[in-house]
Every structure is written in C-alpha cells, then in structure tokens.
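I hope you will forgive my troubling you with a question about protein structure. Could you please explain, in whatever detail you think fit, how the structure tokens follow from the sequence? Thank you for your consideration; the sequence and its tokens are set out here.
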Amino acid sequence: MEIQFTVPGRPKGKGRPRATMAAGHARVYTPADTVNYENWVRLCYRQEHPGVMLAGPVSMVVAAYFAVPKSYSKKKAALCASGALKPTCKPDMDNIVKAVADALNGVAYRDDSCIVSLSVHKLYGDAERLEIVLQGEEAPR
C-alpha cells in the first residue's frame, strides 16, 4: 500500500531537547515549536488518511520544498527552478526526517523503528511544503 500526503508550509527540523532547573531538579522538554510542527504533520496525515496505519517494514520518501531566496539573481533563480541548484539551507535533512518520523509514531505506523528504507530530497519549489510517501502493508484493524 502506498500513502502520499502533503504538509504545507516551510519544512522544519526536530529541535534539540532543552533542559531547565527547577527546585534543584533538571527538567528536559521538547521545544514548543517542535511540538507544534509535529502536531501539524500528524494532523495533515490524519486529514488525508484517517484511520490508515501501516504494519511491518515501512519505506519513507520525504521531499522538502523551499522557496527560492528573493536575494538570488534571475539567473540563479532560474537554475533553482530547473533543479540544477539545490537548497543547502537549514534545517538539515536528518532533522526534517526526525520530526516527520516522530510525528507519525502511533499514527501512520506503530513506531519509527519500522522504517527500513528512507530517501530524502531538498528541492526548490513554488510553495514551501513537505511531500511524504509511505509504503508498507496495511495494518489489520
């Protein structure tokens, strides 16, 4: 079974855990913007594929589309549009995948340890977004 869905907006990476001291005890937490983005990814998946969950080995393809910077010359922007120039901006692609994989835990698959194949691409596009494709067997309901 192949599942495709889109997450509109600028791709974001998983933020580093933060720590704070309260009453002599360390407290570790995930930054709010990371929690919000993971919830957004989860919501986009559920809207397009409600109740669909994969079992067993899962293959994931993530395409992260970024806007061409306004500071680029027309020549450089044309290279971006043709695909000859790829984005080397933040966030790192491993952090993008970590945010997506963690967001889909328990929603698209049991756990992200089920992912056995991964392909990630950073590209320039008209609208900033993530396009995600998952392949695997549908889990019994």
